Fold:
Amino acid sequence: MKHITKTYAIDDLVVKWEPHKCIHSAICFHGLPSVFDPRKRPWVNVKGAPKNDIAEQVRKCPSGALSLQMNERA
Ligand code: SF4
Structure:
């Protein structure tokens, strides 16, 4: 089965989510519910909090399902 990867981008911050790695620990949406809300589509709202807060929360994902890609600014 092919694994999918979703990306959610704002400016130079790209949040990557790999659903097959997610263990549904709920850490992301308890920690930052204004960004991570599984009831919404898309479930990651990169406009919901300052970028630093999003990056910090992504780093707390225990499974590695959420990760960050920093885009270089031109
Ligand atoms: S913190 Fe990571 S493992 Fe937990 S629900 Fe969010 S994406 Fe899934």
User: Anything to note?
Assistant: The longest helix spans residues 51-59. The chain has one domain: 6-70. The longest strand covers residues 6-10. The mean pLDDT is 94.
